[in-house]
Amino acid sequence: MVHNQEVKVACYGQYDGYPEVVGLKLLWFFSKPENSENLKEILPKVRLWNEKDQKLQNEFLESIGCTNGILNEKQKDEFKKRYPFRYRERYGKLIEGQMLEVLLEFGHLDDLATTDAYDFASDSLFCEWAYVIDYDKNSFEVYKGLNTSGISEEDRFFPLYDGENDYYPVKIIASFPLNQLPDENEFLLECSTR
Q1: Which of 47, 2, 13 minimizes the C-alpha distance to 129?
Q2: 86: how many CB neighbours lie within 10 A of its CB?
Q3: Which strand (E) or helix (H) includes residue 88?
Q4: Percentage helix, strand, coil, to 5, in the chain?
Q5: CA-CA distance, 122 to 145, in Å (whole number)?
Q6: Residue 67 covered by a domain
Q7: If both were cysteines, with which of 30, 42, 77, 167 could 125 make a disulfide (CB 3.0 to 4.6 Å apart)?
Q8: Residue 87 sits in which domain range?
Q9: Domain of life of the organism in this record (predicted)?
Q10: What is the Rg, in whole angstroms, of the alpha carbon atoms belonging to the chain?
Q11: E strand or H helix at 77
Q12: Does residue 69 lie in a domain region?
C-alpha cells in the first residue's frame, strides 16, 4: 500500500494470493468507500518496521526473559501490552488480506509499524501474486509472478531486480481506479486473460 509516495504496508501472505481468494477479498474491502476512507485516514500513522524497531523489540524481549524468540504465556501477555498491533500482526494468523481489517482495528494507536515484506516481490518464482493499493495514483494494481519475460525500468518493482536471476520481479497485469472498481467477474476475467 502506497500513500504520499511512501510504502506503508508490504505484507507477505502465507498462501499464494490468487485473485479468486486474496484478490477478491481486497476487491470487496475497497468496494466499500468507507473502508478506503477510514484506511486513508490512519495511513499517516502507518509505516514499515525498521532496524531500530527491531533493536528495541529485542531489548524488550530480553527484559522479560525471552532469549530464544519463543514466548511463554506470561511473556505473550507482556508483549501484547507493549506491542498490541505487532502481537496481532505476528501471532494472529492473518490470512487473505486481513491486515487491512487489523489496521482499522488498531487505528486508534499513534504508531502502526507493519512488517516489511516488500522485497518478496522480487522473487516471482515464489511470489505468485501481489497487489498494490496506491492512494497517490488512486489505483488497485494486480501483479503476477513466474515472470521470465522481463521487466522495464518503468515497472514499480524494477529496482528489486538483481540482474542475476532467471525470474524477474512480479509484473503488473491489471490496474483499476479505486473509485471505479470492477465487479467480481470482470476482475477475475481481467486477471485470468493476461
Answers
A1: 13
A2: 19
A3: helix 84-91
A4: 45, 15, 40
A5: 9
A6: no
A7: 167
A8: 2-49+83-192
A9: Bacteria
A10: 18
A11: helix 73-82
A12: no
pLDDT of residue 16: 65
- 6-7, strands of its sheet edge to edge: 6-7, 2-3, 129-134, 139-144, 171-177
| Residues 156/114, Cβ–Cβ less than 8 Å | no
Instruction: Note whether 75 and 82 are within 8 A (CB).
Output: no
Residue 56 lies in a domain: no
Identify the CA nearest to 23 among candidates 129, 147, 103, 181: 129
C-alpha cell at 67: 532469549
135 falls within a domain: yes
Could you identify the residue written with the cell 507482556? Answer: 78
pTM > 0.70: yes or no: yes
- Residue appearing with cell numbers 496506491: 134
Q: Is 127 helix (H, G, I), strand (E, B) or coil?
A: coil
Give me the number of domains the chain comprises. Answer: 1
The answer to whether residue 194 scores a pLDDT higher than 90 is: no
